[in-house]
Amino acid sequence: MIIETPRMRLHPVSASDIDDLVLLDSDPEVMRHVSGGLPTARAEITDWVLPRAQSHLRSARGGLWVARHRQSGRFLGWVSLRHPRHSSRSELELSYRLARRWWGRGLATEAADALIAVAFGTMGAERIFATTTAANIGSRRVMEKLGMFVTWVAVPADDADPDLAEVEYELARVHWELGQAPTIPIRRIVTDRRAPGGRHRLATTSEFTFIATGAG
Ligand SMILES: CC(C)(COP(=O)(O)OP(=O)(O)OC[C@H]1O[C@@H](n2cnc3c(N)ncnc32)[C@H](O)[C@@H]1OP(=O)(O)O)[C@@H](O)C(=O)NCCC(=O)NCCS
Asked: Domain N-acetyltransferase: where (predicted)?
């Protein structure tokens, strides 16, 4: 399925996109909050990222769409939806990554907005969620602009570095359909796989004054 937005064409990833994907992940700034700045090996993209995305598309459990400029066809980045392997919920995880030169123009929000419509529409999801590090302000701002809300915050168990805290945002179908804020803005999901016993513990959002408590 090719998705068109006002400025972009989003097409399912294919082998012809591999060079662009490798180049995208070779920028340490792009990878800063993803892998600590490390690039992704070409073999990982060809042998794992591409086949997995194509398998998700075939089974209608998500997919990875490459974003190109509508007029010029220039590579901008990608957006993806993925059903978590062990989840029995009707949910899809949203992710996005753009080349640095295109940041700050509203493109990630525009592309993600279009994918959310597909996720709640043809894919029939009940919940979209996305996670990032607390320090990834740009990514969190995209989620807030999409109308998503913080569901939990997980911090390193030893509280070593608050920047390593992880934040999950979600958008429920009912709120997307109504286009309005939930009445209960924050809740903690105690079944999160990172806690207890892992390297993270769940924290209340009040421990983080810089975590937004609702879409701004
Ligand atoms: C995160 C990312 C996708 C955002 O893409 P984008 O096209 O620049 O996003 P948008 O322009 O739609 O929105 C970004 C918002 O964050 C804001 N922002 C970005 N960095 C910020 C910062 N350091 N402090 C405050 N606001 C910031 C922008 O001003 C903008 O908000 P605004 O529209 O209210 O001004 C892009 O930076 C990226 O690809 N980063 C690397 C990969 C990554 O981190 N992906 C997410 C992993 S979960």
From this structure: 8-174
**Whether residue 162 has a cis bond before it, omega within 30° of 0:** no
Residue of minimum CA distance from atom 3 in ligand 1: 97
Q: Is 8 touching ligand 1 by the criterion CB < 6 Å?
A: no
Ligand 1 within 6 A of CB of 7? no
Nearest to 132 by CA among 117, 152, 114: 152
Amino acid in the structure at residue 27: D
Model confidence over 158-199: pLDDT tens digits?
666 767 788 899 999 998 988 765 544 444 433 334 444 455
CA 130 – CA 186 distance, rounded (Å): 15
> Under a CB-based contact definition with an 8 Å cutoff, are residues 95 and 132 in contact?
no
Domain 1-101: give its CATH architecture: 3-Layer(aba) Sandwich (3.40)
